[in-house]
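Quick one, probably user error.
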């Protein structure tokens, strides 16, 4: 059959013609990089092992680990919905990355898999993230910092647990994230009708107990903003040898404690006509506390007036170091959450099944973890500090012609690809010999 020829307006004297005889062309050949990373760490295979498969083995066409890998790789490549897989299942780059040489699962098969997810599977999936975190260290670190933070996921429709949140001014979910550096440890779906700290104490206790099984001498620090200030959490940390650096909302008593140093900062600002910030450390005991704790005040005065902030710390240390070097470092966690929400589609919680929505957060988390393991091979390169979306654009969304026969799969990329030297070096690192 002669391919249909498409004719465009000419360029000077040359005719511009196109047809559909180019063979199989993909825009996602970089998924083969994630395939190598996944084979090293067995992330998708281990994730598939947490699911129950009630299907009759003789009737199974698409195995669980293949479907899980298909979904995680699809998210990593920028395909957010199940509907995308109706066309994506025929893409030979994804088929090769997943380990198949024929059509992958369609949206209905993938949807049935996701709707079988339950609470037990989600607990085991989080334990996999924790084990993977431990495996990435050759020896126990002296200290780790567990960053806790929540964010909103807008909800449109009749999803279970839908509530209106006054702070975010829309109906939403309110997932809890826990990171240690760049390592994702928790991606936990919650309703938005409770506080930031909901279930954070229980999750902290589980994490600390798990980590100390492997690293009994490692110092653990709990860090969070004022939404995670709860006397119960602080008391538990005190009794379980866990340090903490947590924000606390300002109140009249705290403001009274810093009246004098705030006046000195204000006077300095009037003299220099620029923003001035200082720290002031003091002991403070709220009515609900059994004993006083150290509080560090960040006292700032500028054109818009006074802006004092307060944190509670179990450490007696320099106030400037506690606030600016240790507490403010938690801001980097927000970039990790953006990777989850904006780049890896953790916000696609549109199912009418609660645990299916939690599963989609986990899929996003495992796609993020794959990118982080890929990043570990990119040290001392321009790609080392790039976000997940930028890594996808430069290394995953690579166009190529695929020629497949019984002996080999040939991937023909453009010789004008701007990162071909970096890609070649990366392949040599991932596939030694």
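Nope, works fine. Designed sequence:
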């Amino acid at each position: 059959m002669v391919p249909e020829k498409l004719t465009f307006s000419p360029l000077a004297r040359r005719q511009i013609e196109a047809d559909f005889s180019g063979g199989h062309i993909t825009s996602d050949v970089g998924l083969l990089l994630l395939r190598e990373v996944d084979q090293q760490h067995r992330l998708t295979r281990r994730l598939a092992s947490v699911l129950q498969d009630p299907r009759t083995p003789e009737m199974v066409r698409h195995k669980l680990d293949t479907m899980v890998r298909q979904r995680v790789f699809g998210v990593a490549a920028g395909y957010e919905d199940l509907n995308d897989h109706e066309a994506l299942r025929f893409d030979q780059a994804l088929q090769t990355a997943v380990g198949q040489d024929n059509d992958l699962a369609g949206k209905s098969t993938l949807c049935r898999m996701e709707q079988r997810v339950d609470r037990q599977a989600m607990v085991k999936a989080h334990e996999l993230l924790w084990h993977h975190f431990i495996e990435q260290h050759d020896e126990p670190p002296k200290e780790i910092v567990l960053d806790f933070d929540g964010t909103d996921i807008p909800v449109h429709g009749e999803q279970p647990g839908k509530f209106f949140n006054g702070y975010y001014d829309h109906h939403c979910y309110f997932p809890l994230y826990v990171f240690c550096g760049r390592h994702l440890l928790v991606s936990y779906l919650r309703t938005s009708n409770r506080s930031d700290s909901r279930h954070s104490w229980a999750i902290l206790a589980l994490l600390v107990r798990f980590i100390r099984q492997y690293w009994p001498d490692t110092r653990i620090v709990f860090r969070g903003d004022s939404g995670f200030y709860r006397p119960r959490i602080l008391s538990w940390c005190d009794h379980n040898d866990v340090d903490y650096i947590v924000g606390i909302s300002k109140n009249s008593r705290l403001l009274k404690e810093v009246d004098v140093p705030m006046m000195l900062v204000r006077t300095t600002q009037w003299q220099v006509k620029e923003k001035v910030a200082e720290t002031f450390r003091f002991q403070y005991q709220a009515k609900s506390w059994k004993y006083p704790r150290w509080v560090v005040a960040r006292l700032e005065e500028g054109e818009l007036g006074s802006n004092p902030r307060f944190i509670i710390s179990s450490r007696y240390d320099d106030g400037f170091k506690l606030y600016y070097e240790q507490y403010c470092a938690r801001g980097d966690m927000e970039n990790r959450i953006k990777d989850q929400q904006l780049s890896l589609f953790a916000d696609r919680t549109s199912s009418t099944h609660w645990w299916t929505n939690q599963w989609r957060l986990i899929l996003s988390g495992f796609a993020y973890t794959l990118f982080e393991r890929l990043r570990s091979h990119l040290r001392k390169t321009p790609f080392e500090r790039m976000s997940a979306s930028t890594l996808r654009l430069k290394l995953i969304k690579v166009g190529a012609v695929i020629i497949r026969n019984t002996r080999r799969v040939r991937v023909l990329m453009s010789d004008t690809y701007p990162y071909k030297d970096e890609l070649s070096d990366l392949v040599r690192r991932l596939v030694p010999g």
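The radius of gyration is 26 Å.
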